[in-house]
UniProtKB/TrEMBL annotation:
A Pfam short name: DUF2788
Domain of life: Bacteria
Top-level taxonomy: Bacteria, Pseudomonadati, Pseudomonadota, Gammaproteobacteria, Aeromonadales
InterPro entries (alphabetical): DUF2788
Name of the protein: DUF2788 domain-containing protein
UniProt keywords, alphabetically: Membrane, Transmembrane, Transmembrane helix
Length: 73
């Protein structure tokens, strides 16, 4: 394997790891919300915060890819 292929594999593995972590965090939050009998409004707030955190992380990745593709980074 070439160095570029190894770097690509490491990058892909890291991104999949973060997806798995976000999924596990979401499942843990869902369990806590169910067991705590949290009202619907509170659940919506919790899920909105979680979604915005994930969206910010994805936006950061897209911005980095665009900058690196354009030769900025």
């Amino acid at each position: 394997m070439s160095l570029e292929q190894i770097e690509l594999l490491e990058t892909l593995g890291l991104k999949l790891f973060f997806v798995a972590i976000f999924l596990l965090i979401g499942l843990a939050i869902q369990d806590v919300l169910k067991r705590g009998n949290v009202p619907k409004f509170g659940r919506y707030i919790v899920w909105a915060v979680l979604f915005l955190g994930c969206a910010g992380f994805v936006a950061k990745g897209i911005i980095e890819a665009v900058w690196e593709g354009g030769g900025v980074g």
